[in-house]
Design goal:
The complex is a heterodimer of chains A (442) and B (492). Chain A is globular and about 80 Å long. Helices cover 37% and strands 15% of the residues of chain A. In chain A, strands 2-10-9-8-7-3-4 form a 7-stranded mixed β-sheet, sandwiched between helices. In chain A, strands 13-14-17-16 form a 4-stranded antiparallel β-sheet, with helices on one face. Chain A has 13 helices and 17 strands. In chain A, helix 5 runs parallel beside helix 11. In chain A, strand 7, helix 9 and strand 8 form a beta-alpha-beta unit. Chain B has 3 domains: 56 residues, no CATH class; 255 residues, Aspartate Aminotransferase, domain 2 (3-Layer(aba) Sandwich), CATH 3.40.640; 124 residues, Aspartate Aminotransferase, domain 1 (Alpha-Beta Complex), CATH 3.90.1150. In chain B, the strands form 3 sheets. In chain B, strands 1-7-6-5-4-2-3 form a 7-stranded mixed β-sheet, sandwiched between helices. Chain B has a 4-stranded antiparallel β-sheet with strand order 10-11-13-12, with helices on one face. Chain B has a two-stranded antiparallel sheet with strand order 8-9. In chain B, helix 10 links the parallel strand 5 and strand 6. In chain B, helix 5 packs parallel to helix 12, helix 6 crosses helix 7 and helix 12 packs across helix 15. The two termini of chain B are 40 Å apart. The relative contact order of chain B is 0.13. The chains are: A alpha/beta (442), B alpha/beta (492). At the A-B interface, helix 1, helix 2, helix 3, helix 4 and helix 5 of A face helix 1, helix 2, helix 3, helix 4 and helix 5 of B.
């Protein structure tokens, strides 16, 4: 395929205008010693028809149509048809960052509305236009807390997502922050241990629900953190915030999370997006783009990117973050999703996830093959100990058309023997009953 | 402005301000399991007050976003010569590909045996980017260009630490993108800036003076943000290596050199690639992009994990490099973006990819030649895929600033070029036509620029007020900062 609308004749016209005989002359500035003297070792191009067949063959070689109980930060939720209709509009997906507000009011208003929805969900005053994912938003919250408090050490709950803990550790290698992990038991933060660790900390970071699905005692954690002068960072699952309390009400200063559940495809783990919200008093230390409402010279309301003096293209090495590209289109999808489900739909979907998760939990326990590891409250996800070989069970269930949860021992020895099950509103009682029947028959 | 983007008599209400409390679009499924008492189940974790979200029916959503789209400008709307951003056409086959259920509906923790097609695609993309960059080891994990810069710098830091000393400073030229110094700071290094010489390249004397064994790396965009290829590139990377430092190439301008010269062959040790620039994945109004990192074999063991490897039996698996810096995001990278880029590379093939750069460079030089005379050229040399004009003459002689001319372009239905960047050019206007624009479109743009140059001379006052035909006109950014209105709040 070729996406160049210039004919050979036009190419000659252009060469003549620039005073070159061949295109190669334009590349003579490149030292001959390093110029590539051979064609790239890549396959030849293809027609769209041949290409579509090849790509489709790759796609169908992945096993689809499975009944999934896999979660761990990426979930099989329903995506309303209207979402893809909106994000497929070329005016949205082929646009750049809205640096020219006069012709970017669509993107800007959509971001402003998205920010408003994130504030409503989280109970925060301000939200940015999105980050890469939940993990990087988590890290940026830690870095921001260090700037706000002028402290160096952050305390993170060991019950948070293991990959998020790893990303935090990767960033901390730079020496910008020191990370201390607070012990956790069966997916719940050890608040007694936290009391000692929080002293002089910039922030306490906690996920609720935790990686194992447990609802944390955020008010108690916030009390400990605030007593020590640390900020409270809460990571939450946004699709549950119709039924779960706004973290802001529970004492959070910064709320972040992975936004994929809101109208974004799983897509093998990305792109989803990170949401990031905080109290108004911290806004000048916030990372990322922010849209604001103002007026034009004729007094008409309009939107702009604002407070850009925090950002890398203005402040360079003194910026609050190096982030430039964000995940605007994924945030747009989330905005359309939240508008389409509304208050009532989000409450109902969150309720369905949690009710179905409790149903599956109870019927799995009743088989005698699984046992509970915690008596903590849980939401859409829970971990059980499996009495047997997890890998063999999962393999057998894959052949029966099920993704039988996540073997979390891959992340930590502390999680040995545990399977993490996620249940979304898409799972039916019939699917769960069939799943349980098959597991019992193994 | 183009036909579709007319001004409206009244501003569009926010989505919170339309519909009625009874309006519904998507409702929860019928509950087929016993309901639960949220307060009893979640305790203090149960919601105390309903979330205030919009309440609209589907037609209201459809019309709302259709309106917002109609006041937004994308590549499909018209010419988008935004320098350094490579706003090329986004092929629709790529959009189709990433939406195939076999790609869009798979979970990152599925067993490798059930996602061989996806892993194979990633492996193929790793190989293609390794060949194009001349840097064979590739991580697809970074989510964006700046994220890729950070990843590469972290790998460089880990390399130095493994050799006994993290070192302290990173050198960047004065033409660098803002993300470069911001990335250096996030990596715990300090920035040493070196000036450009009179040909727009790195000043070798200044570089020599800045280099010592405290320097961890040089970050260089080549061709640089002036659109100029640094002829001294081999000497530069040699000088960097001579003090034990490494050379990082910011891949923002890779669209100029595909199949012509490879950063690895220029002596770079690492680079990032913006798939949303060079490999035609859409910018999405700000993202998502993807910023894969390509490195030499010596740096391969420090890449973030996991990467995709091919086992002896031909199957694909995930593996973490031996001395990996660790993850830099959750899961495997922006896979949906990777599918688009892979599809694009397969569509073009070796020959097509090389032709991309040939046409991008020819188009930029063509536009530059046609604008010569009406505007000052910051550097009068053969350019690569972009070039920089200076509006200094217009400012000095007529009091019209580059910003005014950029805003006036909006009235011609063109997205303005990048302005006031790079910072070393006064009143900079940075133009990148890309290879996907026809000669007719390039000529229309040139004509619009020449018309504006005449307006500057004949009616400079008029330009201070431009644009006139856009959905809104110049916005009060100072007021936006002074009285921040960043979220809609319901009346209490």
């Amino acid at each position: 395929m070729r996406f160049i609308p210039v004919s050979c004749e036009q190419r000659e016209t252009m060469l003549h205008a620039v005073g070159a005989r061949t295109v190669d002359e334009l590349f003579e500035v490149i030292p001959a010693s390093v110029r590539l003297a051979r064609p790239l070792a890549l396959p030849s191009g293809m027609s769209e028809i041949d290409l579509a067949a090849e790509i489709e063959a790759l796609a169908v070689s992945n096993t689809g149509g499975l009944v999934s109980f896999l979660g761990g930060g990426c979930y099989d939720h329903y995506i309303p048809a209207i979402v893809d209709s909106v994000v497929s509009k070329p005016e949205f997906f082929t646009a750049y960052t809205p640096y020219q507000p006069e012709i970017s009011q669509g993107t800007l208003q959509a971001i402003y509305e998205y920010q408003s929805m994130v504030c409503a969900l989280t109970g925060m005053d301000v939200a940015n236009a999105s980050m890469y994912d939940g993990a990087t938003a988590f890290v940026e919250a830690a870095l921001m807390a260090a700037r706000v408090t002028k402290r160096h050490r952050v305390v993170v709950s060991g019950a948070a997502h293991p990959e998020w803990l790893e990303v935090l550790a990767t960033y901390a290698e730079s020496g910008m922050i020191e990370v201390v992990t607070c012990p956790a038991t069966a997916g719940v933060t050890d608040i007694e241990a936290l009391t000692g660790l929080a002293v002089d900390a910039a922030a306490v970071l906690v996920a609720s629900p935790s990686f194992l699905g447990c609802v944390e005692d955020v008010p108690a954690i916030a009390a400990v953190a605030h007593e020590a002068g640390a900020l409270v960072v809460v990571a939450s699952n946004p699709i549950l915030l119709g039924v779960m309390e706004a973290p802001g009400v529970l004492g959070a200063d910064i709320v972040v999370g992975e936004g994929q559940p809101l109208g974004n495809a799983m897509a093998f783990g990305g792109p989803g997006f990170g949401f990031f919200a905080c109290k108004e008093q911290f806004i000048r230390q916030m990372p990322g783009r922010i849209a604001g409402r103002t007026t034009d010279v004729d007094g008409r309301p309009g939107f702009v990117l604002t407070m850009q003096t925090r950002e890398q293209h203005i402040r360079r090495e003194k910026a609050t973050s190096n982030i430039c590209s964000n995940h605007a289109l994924n945030a747009l999808a989330a905005g359309v999703y939240l508008a389409s489900v509304g208050t009532v739909g989000l409450e109902g979907i969150g309720r369905a996830c949690i009710a179905k998760a409790h149903y599956l939990h109870d019927v799995l326990i009743a088989t005698g093959r699984f046992s509970a590891v915690s008596d903590a409250a849980f939401g859409n996800e829970f971990a059980l100990r499996y009495d047997g070989d997890i890998a063999a069970m999962q393999h057998a269930m894959l052949e029966r058309g099920f993704l039988a949860g996540l073997d979390v021992s891959r992340f930590s020895d502390d999680y040995a023997g545990l399977v993490l099950f996620a249940v979304t509103e898409k799972r039916t009682r019939a699917q769960m009953d069939r799943f349980v029947g098959e597991v019992v028959s193994l | 402005m183009s036909e579709h983007m007319k001004r409206e008599a009244v501003a569009r209400p926010l989505i919170f301000e339309i519909g009625s409390p009874e309006s519904r679009c998507v409702e929860a499924p019928t509950l087929d399991v016993p309901d639960i008492d949220m307060a009893a189940t979640l305790g203090s974790g149960a919601r105390s007050r309903a979330v205030r979200l919009p309440h609209v029916t589907e037609i209201e959503i459809a019309r709302h976003y259709q309106h917002l789209a109609s006041v937004n400008f994308g590549v499909d709307s018209g010419f988008y010569p935004l320098g350094s951003c490579t706003m090329k056409y986004n092929p629709r086959i790529d959009e189709w590909a990433c939406r195939l259920p076999g790609f869009s509906a798979i979970h990152p923790y599925q067993p490798a045996e059930s996602v061989q097609g996806a892993l194979g695609l990633m492996h193929g993309l790793q190989d293609a980017l390794g060949e194009i960059s001349g840097l064979p080891a590739v991580s697809l994990q970074p989510a964006a260009g700046a994220h890729g810069e950070l990843t590469a710098l972290m790998a460089i830091r880990a390399y130095h630490v493994a050799n006994g000393d993290a070192r302290k400073r990173v050198i960047i030229p004065d033409t660098a993108h803002g993300t470069n110094p911001a990335t250096v700071a996030m990596c715990g290094y300090s920035v040493t800036q070196v000036p450009s010489n009179d040909r727009g390249g790195v000043d070798l004397e200044a570089l020599k003076a800045a280099l010592d064994t405290d320097v961890a790396a040089l970050m260089l965009t080549n061709p640089n943000t002036l659109g100029l290829f640094d002829e001294n590139i081999v000497a530069i990377t040699d000088m960097v290596h001579a003090v034990g430092a490494l050379a990082f190439c910011d891949g923002a301008n890779l669209n100029a050199i595909l199949g012509k010269v490879r950063p690895g062959d220029m002596g770079f040790d690492a680079m990032h690639i913006n798939l949303h620039k060079t490999f035609a994945t859409p910018h999405g109004g700000g993202g998502p992009g993807a910023g894969p990192v390509c490195v030499t074999d010596a740096l391969a063991e420090f890449l973030p994990g996991p990467v995709v490897v091919k086992d002896a039996d031909g199957s694909f698996a995930l593996a973490t490099p031996a001395r990996s810096i660790g993850r830099i995001k959750a899961f495997l990278g922006n896979f949906g973006v990777l599918v688009r880029a892979y599809t694009y590379i397969r569509a073009l093939g070796a020959e097509g990819i090389t032709e991309v750069s040939e046409q991008a460079v020819l188009s930029a030089n063509y536009v530059k030649e046609r604008l010569r005379g009406a505007f000052d050229l910051a550097y009068d040399r053969t350019c690569m895929h972009e070039f920089v004009l200076s509006g200094e003459r217009q400012r000095k002689q007529h009091g019209v600033r580059t910003l005014d001319m950029a805003k006036r372009l909006l009235d011609h239905g063109v997205h303005p070029p990048t302005v006031y960047f790079p910072l070393l050019v006064h009143e900079a206007i940075m133009i990148e036509p890309t290879e996907t624009e026809s000669l007719e479109v390039l000529d229309e743009f040139v004509d619009a620029m020449l018309a504006i140059a005449r307006e500057v001379e004949e009616n400079p006052e008029m330009l201070h007020e431009a644009p006139y035909t856009t959905p809104v006109r110049r916005l009060d950014e100072a007021a936006a900062v002074k009285q921040p209105d960043l979220a809609w709040k319901p009346a209490e």
